[in-house]
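Human: Note token order:
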Amino acid sequence: MTDLPHMDETPETMLPSALLDALYGGLLDATPWEAFLRELSAYLDSSYATLILTVPGASNPGTIVTPDANPQTAEDYSASFFTSDPFIGLPEGEVVTFADFVGSGGNDLVEFRRAFLDAAGGDQILGVDLRAASGFEARIRATRDRSRPDFTRADRDALQHLVPHLRNAIRLYERLAAIGTEQGVFQGAIEQMAVATIIVDHGGRILRTNARADHLLEQNDGIGRTGNRLLFGGREEQKALETLLRTLGVESDPRAIAPLRLRVERPSGARDLAIVAQPVAGPAFMRGATAAAVALFVSEPGSRTGPSPEAIRDLFQLTPAEAQLAAALANGASLIDAADRLGVTHNTVRGHLRAIFAKTGVRRQSQLVHLLNARLP
């Protein structure tokens, strides 16, 4: 039996499933919004569709996405016409046309039409502005060039029907962006503490690692990987992890299970690894075989990681080569060792060192090492 439309949904107001799928599903794409804007352009029979995410009053757009349009047009708009665009400040959530909102205008509008809209294909534009509680604004625009007929009332209604979905998608995108930012802060803090982080699922398969963990796994010294599976060198430690994973069944509460603490010997004779295996307290419906089960935090007691070349470069305005040398010295390398590591001659590193002294204001290598470790712990 064929499903019938809801009584207040006539066929004209029903939204294509491909459009909604691109709107919500595309938020997780590597380039969010592009697939949706292409579908929106097809839905409205426009030449292209645009999304601008910005803060009101900003001098340039924070994000502008216009797939399949001339890249030069978007670049010109961002660089020269964003602040002079008269098609802004639309009634929140209400779809309007450029002609209805702007009218005939004055000299500024004539100049905007001549300088930008003529090159962009014309002023047949549908727009809607949505304002988030956090203060940013999402501007959606659909543009037709002169080869197509003008937008009609039906076209405007078609975009208006999409507005509730656009609000939901904007809220989801805002939350995903906030989570990504927060995650970056915490990940950066963990990296600074030289803690390797490994997340495994219920089968012991590795889901995520940070750079420090990748380095340890590549060494395969007490802890390693076979394919995508995490393996300890010691049988007892491996058994302890597998027992913990079995304990974390669908019915268990990860918050009630104590972290597992391990000390793993390394065949190379290097210091033992200290590991804390912390159950992941995710929602119950996500506690399946392939969901995150345990986060392992691995440290090397007594080891330390000095400042990164990137941080040194940004702080003292060094060249990349100078920053690499400074980082090597801060991590305890001699000048000769640093030259060997960087694959350059001793005369070259001496030249780099003189330049570093001039930029940092120190006169001796020991002063430089002290400065770097004090300013960038």
